[in-house]
Amino acid sequence: MKTDNSELKKFNTKIITPLIVLFSTSIIAVFSYLKHYPVRDWFMIVFATVVIFLVIGLLTEKMITRFIEINYEKAMSEKAEAERLEEESRAAMEAEANGESGVKTDSLEVKDII
């Protein structure tokens, strides 16, 4: 699967942490509210949930960011390698067209061997 190199860098990872924190905390806040926890306990649960999922979100964001960077570097090296190979093949075709085979051979004859 080929992707455009510019698309690899455009992925916005800054939104991952807030989404994880808001989504997870809202689920736990609603669940603990429906279980009729006292207000003090409810606030402690929500605060602890925010902190825990903030750490999880930051770790997830860092992992995804590093994964994207690795893929970008790999795509750039593949592109550079393809360009190098294309340039080499172009140079070989030009040399062949000019009459140079690029490979020098000795002119051995049968009498030289015997």
List the helices and strands and how they pair.
Blueprint (H helix, E strand, L loop, with lengths): L4 H6 L5 H19 L4 H59 L12 H4 L1
General description of the model:
The protein is an all-alpha fold. It has one domain (13-97). The protein contains four helices and no strands. Helix 2 packs antiparallel against helix 3. It is rod-shaped, with a radius of gyration of 31 Å. The mean pLDDT is 83.
Domain module tally: 1
What is the chains' assembly state? single chain
What is the residue-mean pLDDT, rounded to a whole number? 83
Helix content: over 70%
Largest sheet: none
Q: Which runs of at least 5 residues are low in confidence (pLDDT < 50)? A: none
Quick take:
This protein is mainly α and 114 residues long.
List keywords for this structure.
single chain; 114 residues
